[in-house]
């Protein structure tokens, strides 16, 4: 459950809303893309270094015009995240992997099965 402005929202309500708004497929595609990237990185032994995470975080802060640490923390709160979640949940690391790990683009989803293109 998510508490948004004191109002509880159940995961099922989020999924139902995404369906009604015709956004579920787009969100699922993004989730699957993330899983493919993570799987390919794991299989090939690619990891994200703390320096790469810091560089990506700095890039995001620059794009969002977050000049001070307090600006970043306020933005994360507005995004319903904290600093630990931002890195632990691969919000940054996935960005680094997807930007630097090109072979994942050759993977595709074939009726629910991950595989290489035919």
Structure description:
- With 118 residues, this protein is mainly alpha-helical.
- It has one domain.
- It contains six helices and four strands.
- The chain has helices at 11-20, 24-44, 50-63, 69-78, 83-88, 93-100, and strands spanning 2-4, 7-9, 108-110, 113-115.
- The strands form two sheets. It has a two-stranded antiparallel sheet with strand order 1-2. Strands 3-4 form a two-stranded antiparallel sheet.
- Strand 1 (2-4) and strand 2 form a beta hairpin.
- The longest helix is centred in the first third of the chain and has 21 residues, at 24-44.
- The radius of gyration is 17 Å and the shape is flat.
- The termini are far apart.
- The model has no long low-confidence stretch (mean pLDDT 80).
Brief synopsis:
With 118 residues, the chain is mostly helical. It is 58% helix and 10% strand. The strands form 2 sheets. It has a two-stranded antiparallel ribbon with strand order 1-2. Strands 3-4 form a two-stranded antiparallel sheet.
Instruction: Please identify the structural class as seen in this structure.
Output: mainly alpha
Task: Give a short account of the largest sheet.
Answer: 2 strands, antiparallel
The termini sit apart by 41 Å
Tally of helical segments: 6
Observed structural traits:
6 helices, mainly alpha, two-stranded antiparallel ribbon, 10% strand, 118 residues
List the helices and strands and how they pair.
Blueprint (H helix, E strand, L loop, with lengths): L1 E3 L2 E3 L1 H10 L3 H21 L5 H14 L5 H10 L4 H6 L4 H8 L7 E3 L2 E3 L3
Antiparallel strand pairs: 1-2, 3-4
């Amino acid at each position: 459950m998510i508490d948004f402005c004191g109002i509880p929202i159940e995961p099922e309500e989020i999924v139902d809303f995404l369906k009604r708004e015709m956004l579920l497929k787009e969100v699922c595609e993004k989730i699957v893309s993330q899983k493919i990237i993570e799987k390919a990185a794991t299989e090939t032994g690619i990891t994200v270094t703390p320096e790469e995470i810091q560089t990506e975080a700095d890039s995001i802060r620059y794009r969002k015009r977050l000049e001070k640490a307090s600006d970043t923390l306020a933005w994360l709160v507005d995004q319903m995240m904290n600093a630990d979640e931002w890195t632990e949940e691969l919000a940054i690391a996935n960005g680094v992997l997807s930007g630097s790990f090109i072979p994942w683009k050759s993977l595709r989803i074939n009726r629910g099965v991950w595989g290489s293109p035919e």
